[in-house]
Write a structure and sequence with these properties.
The chain folds into two domains: about 260 residues, TIM Barrel (Alpha-Beta Barrel), CATH 3.20.20; about 60 residues, no CATH class. Helix content is about 30%, strand content about 25%. The chain has an eight-stranded parallel beta barrel with strand order 1-3-6-7-8-9-10-18. Strands 12-11-17-14-13 form a five-stranded antiparallel sheet. Strands 2-5 form a two-stranded parallel ribbon. The longest helix has 25 residues. It is globular, with a radius of gyration of 24 Å. The relative contact order is 0.13.
Length: about 350
């Protein structure tokens, strides 16, 4: 007969083992990857298709561009441009993350006092727009700048100054281009809490013979070939937009954002379909508010849903990238005419 004390000890050990196992299993449970969107248009006025999409895909984080920073005309200092115009405040359930786009040239020919001044003015402008438009921001702010080795010191200093001037934002994030991700020693790593790795604008859009300047999984695979861990947590930014590039005498002269694709393909009196995604203008005239000339070539760059899914699968195979969010660039009224709710749900299943 087994003594009662031994039975109790065995029972307690088994119970403790079960508890430890359950805790370990719970600790290993993967946190679902969130779906989020960039809103990059100057006017904020979400329409029913946009709100329905956000609800369908359970996206509660909205990265809201509130202004740009660049030189205006012959100004001697960077100015605040394209200030956000809030026609209708997004519903309260959305976490609004303010975004600021800054051109690389804004950090050329400056010094640290000027950089400090720009950060201080930027912080004031953010608070001014927030109050004016009655916006409620979350605890994150994101900066978008394609810095270079020659500007990184001042850009990185700007980020440090901005953090000091905006203590209400506990998370400072920034966009990371693919070349910055692959060559961190050359480009430097910004002093931020986390980054958004931009998986688009991969090609030279000015080259007439380029296949697609927005996205190419073959190019993405080359950049993802690195095995070294990037020293920041990275979320992923994926493209859900298109454009038509206008080439005149072999030179890119205009970009038509969100072109009416059906009209482009069916308007055979104005366009002649050539090879792949190229269309030739047959006579002078207006299209989408832009005057085109006979002989102009339009190259339609767009990203197929299956290519986005394949790109996400390529990212998932990278052990050094574990995104908490997939952020789609960008949200606009006609987005569901290109990508269905089912497309976005299928995208999310890659990580979840």
């Amino acid at each position: 007969m087994i003594p009662a004390s031994m039975t109790n000890n065995h029972f307690m050990k088994q119970l403790l083992l079960c508890m430890v196992t359950l805790l370990a299993l719970n600790g290993c449970q993967k946190v679902p990857t969130e779906t989020a969107f960039y809103h990059w248009e100057q006017t904020v006025d979400l329409q029913e298709p946009e709100l329905t999409l956000l609800e369908q895909v359970k996206a509660t984080n909205l990265y809201l561009r509130i202004f740009d920073i660049d030189y205006k005309d012959k100004s001697k200092a960077p100015a605040f441009l394209s200030l956000v115009n809030v026609k209708q405040i997004p519903p309260a359930e959305y976490n609004l993350i303010p975004c600021i786009f800054i051109t690389n040239r804004s950090f050329k020919g400056v010094n640290y006092p000027l950089t400090d001044s720009l950060a201080r003015r930027t912080a004031s402008q953010i608070r001014h727009l927030q109050k004016k438009n009655k916006l409620s921001f979350g605890d994150e702010i994101q900066i978008d700048c394609d810095w270079t080795p020659s500007t990184r010191n001042y850009y990185f200093a700007f980020l440090k100054y901005l953090r000091d001037y905006l203590p209400e934002f506990t998370t400072l994030s920034a966009t990371i281009r693919l070349h910055q991700y692959k060559y961190p020693k050359k480009t430097g790593v910004p002093p931020i809490d986390k980054g958004s790795l931009m998986l688009y604008n991969m090609g030279n859009f000015e080259k007439p013979d380029a296949k697609n300047a927005i996205y190419d999984n073959a190019i993405l695979k080359q950049y993802l070939s690195k095995t070294q861990q990037y020293p920041l947590h990275l979320d992923i930014a994926m493209p859900v937009f298109n454009w038509a590039l206008v080439f005149r005498f072999g030179k890119a002269v205009k970009i038509i954002h969100n072109p009416r694709i059906t009209d482009l393909k069916e308007n055979k009196d104005f366009f002649a379909h050539q090879e792949d995604n190229r269309y030739k203008v047959l006579h002078n005239g207006y299209w989408q508010g832009l005057y085109l000339y006979k002989g102009d070539i339009l190259r339609l760059d767009q990203v197929k849903a299956e290519d986005i899914e394949k790109g996400l699968e390529l990212v998932k195979k990278q052990s050094n990238i574990e995104p908490q969010r997939i952020i789609y660039y960008h949200l606009f009224e006609e987005i569901t005419e290109i990508y269905s709710y089912e497309n976005f749900k299928k995208f999310s299943t890659v990580f979840n």
